[in-house]
Amino acid sequence: MNTTKQIAKHFREVHFGGNWTSSNLKEQLSDVTWIQATTKIHSFNTIATLAFHINYYVAAILRILQSEDLNASDKLSFDHPPINNQADWDNMLNKFWQDAELFATLLEQLPDEKLWKIFADIKYGIYFRNLLGLNEHTHYHLGQIVLLKKLVLMQEKS
Q1: What is the pLDDT of residue 62?
Q2: N or C: which end of the chain has fewer CB within 10 A?
Q3: Cβ–Cβ < 8 Å for 148, 44
Q4: What is the 3-state secondary structure (H, E, C) of the chain?
Q5: Tens digits of per-residue pLDDT, 19-66?
Q6: CB atoms < 10 A from the CB of 139, how many?
């Protein structure tokens, strides 16, 4: 298996399952209601905010894979649209899953030689760094989502 296919495999696994951590976003978010997703615990980000944040970077790199310009800003990466009902949350998740699947599909098609090329701008390094970093970033926030979900469920019981 070539390197881009391997990175895409790991990306799919953190989103949809099959990774060696036995935890993935689809499983963790599938039973989260919009109320739970937007419940604030202490000063932590909400589950919805973290889900948006993960997908913000997926969508930004997806545009690069689609031969578009990089158009993202770290300061906007936590600013999701309001979630006022279950439909809003479901729409956010639907975009999340669609972007993830398209991202993995395009990544599988990326030639390995591209991994060593400059990504969008020299200050961002090479494709390999950004693609691997995206997987690391996603796993990091998946862990936060798992913990927040437990805290939200504990709060509901009390």
Answers
A1: 97
A2: C
A3: yes
A4: CCHHHHHHHHHHHHHHCCCCCCCCHHHHHCCCCHHHHCCCCCCCCCHHHHHHHHHHHHHHHHHHHCCCCCCCCHHHCCCCCCCCCHHHHHHHHHHHHHHHHHHHHHHHHCCHHHHHCECCCHHHCEHHHHHHHHHHHHHHHHHHHHHHHHHHHHHHHC
A5: 888 999 999 999 999 999 999 999 999 999 999 999 999 999 999 999
A6: 18
Answer whether 65's CB lies under 8 Å from 103's CB.
yes
The CATH number covering residue 112 comes to 1.20.120.450
User: What's the first-to-final CA gap in the chain, in angstroms?
Assistant: 49
Contacts of 79 (CB under 8 A, 6+ apart): 52
Find out whether 76 and 31 touch, Cβ atoms under 8 Å: no
What type of residue is 148? Answer: L
User: Mind listing the pLDDT tens digit for each residue in 79-129?
Assistant: 999 999 999 999 999 999 999 999 999 999 999 999 999 999 999 999 999
Here the tokens at position 53 are 């944040």
Structurally, how many domains does the chain consist of? 1
pTM of the model: 0.96
Domain with 88, as residue range(s), is 3-157
